[in-house]
Specification:
204 residues, Glutathione S-transferase Yfyf (Class Pi), Chain A, domain 2, 2 domains, 4-stranded mixed beta sheet, binds glutathione, glutathione transferase activity, GST_C, GST_superfamily, transferase
């Protein structure tokens, strides 16, 4: 079985996918492009929607980070078989991505004054709006979005780290002890731990 994941040399939308693949012991080619060199015309033109991540497996291919994460999660046994439980986790990852969309708006803003105002709003309101709700959901399930470890847990941890990098400031998890514990747990999982130990620090 040949597998290839293409993304930037950043955590961004690919790190949850990488974490799931490493946790699942699923071998893949981890192809990374330097964001500073983007767009690389030959690569971009070959992408169906011009964007990364892009996942290939045995001649088939998939875009959209959540579709990829969900698919590889099914191989890593991180996806429930019950459709209702699957839908609950889908809702969780869409909620996490709603938070991410606020970070993306910040990333895209070019006016420095507006950008600073957006950052202030994120740290004074937006983060707490989402993180207090994630915290509650995790508390309900003994520290996970489902009754046990699932792909949604990986998405939260990956997106949290991507937000920290993009915002240039760590989100303080003191008020969200269950999120903090989940983050520590995912980072020390077999496969993930070894990957993180050799991974080079990301820089924008
Ligand atoms: N909804 C897509 C969004 C993909 C996306 O925004 N990719 C960005 C990087 S995070 C990208 O490829 N940017 C470069 C470009 O648009 O040329 C997903 O979740 O995969």
């Amino acid at each position: 079985m040949s597998r290839k994941l293409q993304y930037f040399n950043l955590n961004g939308l690919a790190e949850p996918i990488r974490y799931i693949l490493y946790y699942g012991g699923i071998k893949f080619e981890d192809v990374r492009y330097e964001f500073k060199s983007w767009p690389i015309k030959t690569v971009k033109d070959a992408l169906p929607f011009g964007q990364l991540p892009w996942y290939e497996e045995n001649g088939r291919s998939l875009n959209q980070s959540l579709a990829i994460a969900r698919y590889v999660a099914s191989q890593a046994r991180l996806l429930p078989s019950d459709p209702w439980e699957q839908a609950v986790l889908d809702a969780a990852v869409f909620n996490i991505y709603d938070f991410w969309s606020k970070v993306v708006a910040f990333i895209k803003e070019e006016d420095p004054v507006k950008k600073q105002a957006m950052k202030s709003e994120l740290f004074s309101e937006t983060i707490d709006f989402y993180f207090s709700r994630f915290e509650k959901e995790l508390q309900k399930n003994n520290g996970h979005f489902w009754s046990k470890l699932s792909w949604a847990d990986f998405v939260l941890v990956g997106i949290l780290e991507s937000a920290n990098l993009s915002l240039g400031q760590e989100i303080d998890l003191k008020k969200y002890p269950t999120i903090k514990a989940l983050w520590a747990q995912v980072k020390s999982l077999p496969g993930v731990k070894e990957y993180v130990a050799v991974r080079k620090p990301y820089a924008l």
